[in-house]
Design brief:
Layout lengths: L1 H22 L14 H4 L3 H15 L10 E4 L5 E5 L2 H4 L3 E7 L4 E5 L9 E7 L7 E6 L3 E2 L7 E2 L1 E6 L4 E9 L7 E8 L26 E4 L2 E6 L2 E2 L2 E2 H14 L6 H21 L5 H13 L9
Amino acid sequence: MKNLKIATFIIAILMLFVQCENESIIDTNNLESTIPNEEILGDKTDLLKSVNESILNKVYQNRDAIEFVYTGELCGLNVTGMYADATAYQSLHHYFFNGNEGDIISIYVPRTTIGFDSAFTLYFGTVDTELIYVTSSDDVIADAFGGCFSDPYIGDFTLPYSGTYTLVIHEAAHCGYPMGYEIITTGINCNDADFDGCQNDEDPYPHSIMTETIIIDGIDTGVENIFENCGTMSDEIQDIINQINDQYTGDNYYTLHKKLSSEVSKLTYYWVKERKITRVERSKISTAIWKSNIPYSIGS
């Protein structure tokens, strides 16, 4: 009887051990069971803020610790990417695009794998120069997998500066690998060299003169450099200057200088007529033309 009790006790211990061992096995076919939910992690505002501060204040100051290579350029087409494992994630994915102050854009980064709690941070500048924090996004749109939190999105966002922007794709809360994502944008196009909203192949001035005022041969007229029809007033004046310079032989300076004054005078006459400038402003432009050293001397 004693031996029977001992045997029963041993069997009970073994059954308990097997049960505990089975409960410790992760079901790889049900990845959701390993992903923390919002009730567990709670509000991630502080967490995302910490990530952004880490990227800007720590990671980018220690430039030897991370590979600063742009993953690609955003040109209005959808882009896909993936962090395969923890090692790959040490080199953050950076994308760049050019934008103009006042441009209205949207950025949406849905995950393409269940384990990625995607988030992004937008900076003005490049990884080779100075980065200025602009905005970031985390949980906005429910993901398609019903996985770890929601996906980031910003819509109808107005760009504050003109120049190059850097978009960093990162995670907000670690949920598992691989971490796949897609970048879907609107309002971003890389086929606009001068950021004036006109496509290069349709822009008569793909590299517009975008100064605030009309400046002629270093002389600031103080007249507003109005932009319209994919070009500026300075672009139109420069067209005339280029034609004059092309005709310069070295001994016809005064003839061409008078011709320049005449051609610009015709142009500004129509600007006054169309009420783009005043008669006083027209006079300022004419004065600057007359004082300029155009056509340019040989070797200038």
